[in-house]
């Protein structure tokens, strides 16, 4: 078996890291294998496998690189750099691209356990690998990254709770059953293969979840960082693939219906909060209503309380609307159009409430005086310092620099509701933003954006729907609202939408025109 030796200090400092590059490589492995572990993966493969195979058919050298690099027992090391905390996909793939040609060829020879094919004796292998990973990210991962990240963070929440209940050994034994195991005497088994042990005491140990159920590997930067990548808990692998029926959403409300649908598998309130992006208070209220209605029950599992659907809840979630014809119009009446009819299809109703009349304090204390922005576009963003999306501060500051002279501003609203990712004081937040990202745009006081304590500013914002039809609770850090010159919301963008994306820039420039 392959095992690592580590001291108590290394184990005590170990932590979980969510990595977009690791998730992307896991999806590449799934595409390469073409073998799904569950219906959610099968549906994903049906959507993406034909395009992936067409891509490789047009790039025969890259296809050969994939076959060589994804060996049966060993992956070429340069394809899987050890994930770093808070690293963006772009920064991660840049490390792949920066690999020397000699190192890439050596890693491929190790993966093949033999000489390189003639077609791979070339210097552009790191560039080809980086381009392939960028394609997998853009085509198959980035569109669903927000959902994937929530699933991964929910797994981290569950594993962290497991550490508090049963210690690190209980977690390590269940990362990849049969492969990872705490052996005792400072030894961690990382795979079943007969490889020489590694001494990693004093280095950084990170545990990295991915949503692909048969994925898992180890990676390292010798003496600095060691990573064990593992598939997240099966019950959390694709929870949002369980779509909410339209009729159920209309009956219960979209947020409460989402909770009911997700409870096909038992989950805790903390897991539901991480997966849905709803506030803990909101999830608690939904669960109470569902329990009172006999749709959900709760049971204790050790120190955890898990919620699951009752038979009545299963029946309601599985019910299909009965097709009905349209009622005949009343003679002489001018009926409202049915959903989907005419030019109204796919549009959202614009909220005509002026949001800039709300009182909110500035980060440094005292009123922020939102009225000072009357007559100019404002991009309002709930921000956090310890989130995987925190690098979006860079793009937000670039928008500020580009358009401030034209009468535009970004307004950052710190919030600590999503896994405690904005824990600092006002002074610490200001120092972090200035020193790390050179932020010059204004920041407000730290507030709540969901639940009973939702700030009045967000009470006025959340009713507006984005281009995908989402309205209601803020889903995660860095959700964006563009306020027009008249003080009303004109656009909403998901957390994963980059500040400098074409749709955000176009919306801002339309308001400045």
TrEMBL record:
Q: Which UniProt keywords apply?
A: Oxidoreductase, Peroxidase
Gene3D superfamilies, sorted: Glutaredoxin, Winged helix-like DNA-binding domain superfamily/Winged helix DNA-binding domain
A GO molecular function term, named singly, is: peroxidase activity
Q: Which residues form the HTH arsR-type domain?
A: 236-329
**Which terms under GO biological process does the entry name?**
cellular response to oxidative stress
Give the highest taxon in the source lineage.
Bacteria
> Mind telling me which InterPro entries this protein's record contains?
ArsR-like_HTH (IPR011991), Glutathione_peroxidase (IPR000889), GPX_AS (IPR029759), HTH_ArsR_DNA-bd_dom (IPR001845), Thioredoxin-like_sf (IPR036249), WH-like_DNA-bd_sf (IPR036388), WH_DNA-bd_sf (IPR036390)
Q: Which Pfam families match?
A: GSHPx, HTH_5
Q: Does the keyword Oxidoreductase apply?
A: yes
Family of this protein: Belongs to the glutathione peroxidase family.
Q: What is this protein called?
A: Glutathione peroxidase
Q: What is the lineage of its organism?
A: Bacteria, Bacillati, Actinomycetota, Actinomycetes, Kitasatosporales
